[in-house]
Design brief:
Blueprint lengths: L23 H4 L2 H8 L2 H9 L9 E6 L5 H14 L7 E7 L5 H8 L12 E7 L12 E7 L33 H25 E12 L11 H14 L5 H6 L9 H9 L9 E11 L2 H9 L2 H23 L6 H18 L8 E10 L2
Helix pairs in contact: 3-4, 6-9, 7-12, 10-11, 11-12
């Protein structure tokens, strides 16, 4: 097994500093929203069945909120169902890493100085921290959600991944690299531990009967969400290795610390009697599904290759840029090099778009905290 490396990010339970800020993630997260929107009926069911046992306040938290566009839309949906159900005040809690762009999030929460939720019973707060740590008081939370976030691992389970930049390996279409069986096993184990850790800390925060909705990109027997986008990023990075602008050592140590789970992997700790979390929750429902990708649909409609390449690359740049940048030597030219890598990805994609087909697969589960 390869060497273990601790994270060098500000949180001991984080392998990235977060999504690209300054409004970039919000502007390039329409695909993620489609994946979220598909499971909002599950959220409606969770709110409908929520038992409020005389609390002083109802608290809803979203973990991995980024700049807030999608997180606020989720909370707005939850509030439409919740506010008619109770006369109590409601606190919405939006949480992400301390290095997240909270300035953009707060601006989204308070446009024109007023609450975005347009209710005098709703109070919003932000909490910085890793979602793999306990961030809220015990038994204080009634509903917890996370969308497209738990795929980001809490730590790097291996020091080097020399054959490819992503632990699930390249697609069969491109086949432009390799990941060893030992390394694949290390990432699968870390992903399993992360689910258990996340469920343990949320169990402390949730009240008995509280609901937990977990949704994330993933894999099915038909496709994997990593296919296409990481093939393209890998090819773009390798083009700079070939030109000696990135060392082979930097390439071997660089990978995106993200794992694409199957639904069975997401729910495995809940089905394992030996797991520490199997007795903490009931598993209410699960779902594995595929959503439409807006930039794919637009390209099929208008055939505009330039716009397709820009939208495709900006989509994955929004959640890969921080890790890529930190993997490169800290020099005055690093920011320009990163920008040129993503521009090169556009060039490669336009030259052969059929080599990088992208589909978005997602998995989800709804849990109830047991008494």
């Amino acid at each position: 097994m390869a060497d273990i490396e601790a994270s060098d990010t500000p949180s001991s339970h984080a392998t990235t500093t977060g999504m690209t800020g300054g409004g970039f993630y919000d502007a390039n997260s329409a695909t993620q929203w489609n994946a979220i929107e598909a499971v909002l009926p599950i959220l409606d069911d969770a709110i409908t069945s929520l038992q409020l046992r005389d609390p002083d306040c109802v608290r809803l938290a979203d973990f991995g909120c980024s700049e807030g566009r999608n997180s606020i839309a989720v909370m707005s949906r939850a509030l439409r169902s919740l506010l008619p159900k109770t006369d109590l005040s409601v606190q919405t809690i939006h949480s992400d890493l301390p290095t997240n762009d909270f300035s953009k999030l707060i601006a989204n929460l308070r446009p024109d100085g007023q609450s975005v939720y347009d209710s005098n019973r709703v109070y919003s707060s932000v909490v910085g921290g890793s979602m793999y740590d306990q961030l809220l008081p015990e038994r204080s939370l009634h509903l917890a959600t996370t969308f497209n976030a738990i795929g980001f691992l809490s730590r790097r389970p291996v020091n080097r991944l020399p054959g490819y930049i992503f632990p699930n390996g390249p697609s069969t279409v491109r086949a432009n690299g390799y990941v060893s069986d030992d390394d694949r096993s290390a990432f699968a184990l870390q992903a399993r531990r992360d689910v258990e850790c996340y469920l343990e800390v949320r169990a402390r925060e949730l009240v008995p009967g509280g609901k937990l909705l977990v949704q994330v990109f993933g894999s099915t027997d038909q496709a994997r969400t990593c296919d296409g986008i990481y093939d393209l990023l890998n090819d773009a990075v390798l083009s700079f290795v070939d030109k000696d602008e990135i060392s082979r050592e930097s390439y071997d140590r660089y990978y995106q610390p993200v794992y694409m789970r199957h639904l069975d992997e997401l729910t495995a700790p809940l089905r394992d009697p030996q797991s520490t979390v199997s007795s903490l929750y009931s598993l209410d429902s699960t779902r594995s599904y595929e959503i439409a990708v807006p930039f794919n649909q637009q390209y099929a409609s208008d055939g505009d290759l330039d716009r397709f390449a820009k939208d495709y690359v900006n989509f994955f740049r929004a959640f890969t840029e921080a890790v890529l940048s930190s993997a490169l030597p800290e020099t005055p030219e690093r920011a320009d090099l990163v920008d040129r890598i993503y521009r090169q990805a556009e060039v490669i994609l336009k030259a052969n778009p059929k080599s990088y087909p992208f589909r978005y697969m997602a998995i989800a589960m709804l849990l109830t905290r047991k008494d």
